[in-house]
């Protein structure tokens, strides 16, 4: 009798889990796929959401970028690695920059903080915070 209840409960749980987007069950392993944030307008794009995200990200950086200048008015060039998160509300947070040029780091952070509010990422139907780390070359 206990086996019948166990099998019935397992069937109900498996059926429920498979109904969630990005969740698959194979044997006794449950895999939950992480779905990244969606840039505004990418929901209706002909491109995949990831490709659209990357295209819109590049467009945003190009249209908002300003070469930083030092105290003498000379353009500062360099590389900065930005780490940021898109939180459960779809907002950019926890922005930090690493690189040898302080002015380049500041510009990379400024551009990143201008990202629009997005549709948040999710895993197993639950909104999640997603971490990004990417280089900026000026």
TrEMBL record:
Keywords: Signal
Pfam families in the cross-refs: TonB_C
One GO term of the biological process aspect: transmembrane transport
Domain of life, source organism: Bacteria
Membrane is among the record's keywords: no
TonB C-terminal domain residues: 64-138
InterPro entries for this protein: TonB_C
Cleavable signal peptide: 1-19
Protein name: TonB-like protein
Origin species: Gillisia mitskevichiae
Top-level taxonomy: Bacteria, Pseudomonadati, Bacteroidota, Flavobacteriia, Flavobacteriales
């Amino acid at each position: 009798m206990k086996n019948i209840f166990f099998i019935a409960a397992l069937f109900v749980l498996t059926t429920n889990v498979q109904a969630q987007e990005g969740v698959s069950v194979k044997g006794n392993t449950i895999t939950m796929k992480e779905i990244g944030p969606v840039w505004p307008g990418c929901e209706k794009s002909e491109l995949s959401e990831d490709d659209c995200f990357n295209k819109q990200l590049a467009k945003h950086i190009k249209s908002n970028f300003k070469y930083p200048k030092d105290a003498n008015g000379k353009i500062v060039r360099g590389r900065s690695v930005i780490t940021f998160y898109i939180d459960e509300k779809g907002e950019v947070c926890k922005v930090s920059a690493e690189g040898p040029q302080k002015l380049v780091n500041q510009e990379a952070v400024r551009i990143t903080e201008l990202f629009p509010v997005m549709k948040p990422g999710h895993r197993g139907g639950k909104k999640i915070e997603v971490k990004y780390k990417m280089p900026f070359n000026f």
